[in-house]
Amino acid sequence: MSKLVIGLTGGIGSGKTTVADIFCEYGIDIIDADIVAREVVEPGTPALNQIAEYFGFDFILADGSLDRTQLRHKVFASETDKAWLNALLHPLIRHAMAEQCKTAKSPYCFLVAPLLIENSINKTVEKVLVVDVKPETQISRTVSRDNNTAAQVQKILDAQVSREERLAHADYVINNDDCSIEELKAQVEVLHREFLKLVVG
């Protein structure tokens, strides 16, 4: 089991996945909330069956998997639907993440969650690392990456905590604005050494 669990977060389009991938190159275990969230609704799971019963089978694709895009649009448009879905999935996701943290083998591990602060997951980790970028960077990156409109991305930003609030919870910050991959790797290397010191110390 890892001696230190660090929460890794950042707003949409901040580059969390890229940062996690670089830490992964050092042999650090990554528990990703997005991956866990997909696992708990895989075909045949009780959660997927409950979603189909509640929202209708239109939300299930031909291969039996969840139509995540359609569901995302649906819950963004309805607070009631969003609350129902969160009540179903959040406990399942938290339990699965906790189990994966327990089995992590690297000296320290990351729990990567876009909504680390919003869902109070930061209270379950020892340290918080925030990948920080300007809101305009988030919008331009996400528009080009996901084929969303700027208005759609702004809606997602509005649903997340503000940049200022996220930074207020940070023990460590990686700046990923106008950052080359080499500069990003350099920041990761410094933090990797720091985290190893914390574990050994």
Automatic annotation (TrEMBL):
Highest taxon above the source species: Bacteria
Gene3D superfamilies: P-loop containing nucleotide triphosphate hydrolases
Pathway: Cofactor biosynthesis; coenzyme A biosynthesis; CoA from (R)-pantothenate: step 5/5
Molecular function, one GO term: dephospho-CoA kinase activity
UniProt-listed SUPFAM superfamilies: P-loop containing nucleoside triphosphate hydrolases (SSF52540)
Catalytic reaction(s) noted: 3'-dephospho-CoA + ATP = ADP + CoA + H(+)
Keyword Iron: no
EC number(s) recorded for this UniProt protein: 2.7.1.24
One Pfam family cited in the UniProt record for this chain: CoaE
Residues reported to bind ATP: G13, S14, G15, K16, T17, T18
Keywords, ordered alphabetically: ATP-binding, Coenzyme A biosynthesis, Cytoplasm, Kinase, Nucleotide-binding, Transferase
Location in or out of the cell: Cytoplasm
Sequence similarity: Belongs to the CoaE family.
Chain's role: Catalyzes the phosphorylation of the 3'-hydroxyl group of dephosphocoenzyme A to form coenzyme A.
Protein name in UniProt: Dephospho-CoA kinase
Organism: Thalassotalea nanhaiensis
